[in-house]
């Protein structure tokens, strides 16, 4: 008869011992990260000073700045939209070359994949700094930074969608005499288009936030206005810009969610 005491407890049946090893490793990494990030528990008790600073300096809002800030918000929206829409137009043909099932040559496949990976590894703010120095201050530098990074990101995402597409429609197109390239385009695009739009609107929402950050380094729009107010210690004007930024981001999130639901 098996000794009942030799049986593993129900706890260890549900949680294998290796899970405790993983948990210990994660905990150790968190401790190391906290040390590297200079986390101070004493500083947490001083967060009340932040609230005091906000209540003392952020009110009342400078509502007379609303027309100017609305104009700057249009600049921010324009940069984000044109940067991501242009990136999608360029990324679509590149994604067919970067997808394993539609690329026509191994050299083209690995070349495009490598180019997308290298470009994707460079953050938008790095592109922004380079373009601000080379092209001068203004929203065009931010637009190019968003465009380049999103070509690489959307190219990778769409390539993965192409690789997961059903092969049946492609074979049907070939069976009726369509060329390989034409058959791939007309068989795959209708399948993946809802997911492509979903990915695009997500990247557009991200680009709104990115354009704000790029504005702080000279890329124009609401981000630059926010930084100008901060540098001049006009905290009430800065608070007005922050409120408008929050409204803008929430509105774009809601619109993107609505479109994704309608499409998908």
TrEMBL record:
<protein>
    <submittedName>
        <fullName>Phosphonate transport system permease protein</fullName>
    </submittedName>
</protein>
<feature type="transmembrane region" description="Helical">
    <location>
        <begin position="238"/>
        <end position="259"/>
    </location>
</feature>
<dbReference type="InterPro" id="IPR035906">
    <property type="entry name" value="MetI-like_sf"/>
</dbReference>
<keyword id="KW-0812">Transmembrane</keyword>
<dbReference type="GO" id="GO:0005886">
    <property type="term" value="C:plasma membrane"/>
</dbReference>
<dbReference type="Pfam" id="PF00528">
    <property type="entry name" value="BPD_transp_1"/>
</dbReference>
<feature type="domain" description="ABC transmembrane type-1">
    <location>
        <begin position="73"/>
        <end position="256"/>
    </location>
</feature>
<feature type="transmembrane region" description="Helical">
    <location>
        <begin position="125"/>
        <end position="148"/>
    </location>
</feature>
<feature type="transmembrane region" description="Helical">
    <location>
        <begin position="73"/>
        <end position="96"/>
    </location>
</feature>
<feature type="transmembrane region" description="Helical">
    <location>
        <begin position="20"/>
        <end position="37"/>
    </location>
</feature>
<dbReference type="GO" id="GO:0015416">
    <property type="term" value="F:ABC-type phosphonate transporter activity"/>
</dbReference>
<keyword id="KW-0472">Membrane</keyword>
<dbReference type="InterPro" id="IPR005769">
    <property type="entry name" value="PhnE/PtxC"/>
</dbReference>
<dbReference type="InterPro" id="IPR000515">
    <property type="entry name" value="MetI-like"/>
</dbReference>
<keyword id="KW-0813">Transport</keyword>
<keyword id="KW-1133">Transmembrane helix</keyword>
<comment type="similarity">
    <text>Belongs to the binding-protein-dependent transport system permease family.</text>
</comment>
<keyword id="KW-1003">Cell membrane</keyword>
């Amino acid at each position: 008869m098996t000794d009942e005491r030799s049986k593993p407890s129900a706890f260890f049946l549900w949680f294998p011992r290796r899970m405790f090893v993983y948990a210990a490793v994660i905990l150790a990494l968190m401790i190391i990260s906290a040390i590297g990030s200079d986390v101070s528990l004493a500083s947490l008790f001083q967060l009340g000073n932040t609230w005091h600073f906000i209540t003392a300096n952020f009110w009342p809002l400078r509502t007379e700045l609303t027309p100017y800030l609305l104009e700057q918000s249009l600049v921010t929206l324009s940069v984000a939209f044109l940067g991501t829409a242009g990136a999608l137009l360029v990324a679509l043909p590149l994604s067919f070359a970067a997808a394993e099932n539609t690329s026509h040559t191994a050299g083209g496949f690995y070349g495009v994949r490598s180019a997308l990976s290298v470009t994707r590894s460079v953050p938008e703010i790095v592109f922004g700094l380079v373009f601000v120095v080379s092209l001068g201050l203004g929203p065009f530098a931010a637009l190019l930074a968003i465009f380049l990074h999103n070509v690489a990101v959307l190219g990778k995402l769409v390539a993965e969608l192409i690789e997961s597409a059903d092969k049946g429609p492609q074979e049907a197109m070939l069976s009726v005499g369509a060329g390989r390239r034409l058959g791939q385009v007309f068989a795959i695009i209708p399948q993946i288009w809802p997911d492509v739009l979903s990915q695009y609107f997500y990247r557009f929402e991200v680009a709104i936030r990115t354009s704000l950050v790029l504005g702080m380094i000279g890329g124009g729009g609401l981000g630059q206005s926010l930084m100008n107010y901060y540098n001049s210690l006009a905290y009430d004007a800065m608070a007005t810009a922050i409120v408008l930024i929050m409204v803008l981001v929430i509105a774009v999130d809601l619109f993107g969610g609505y479109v994704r639901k309608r499409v998908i």
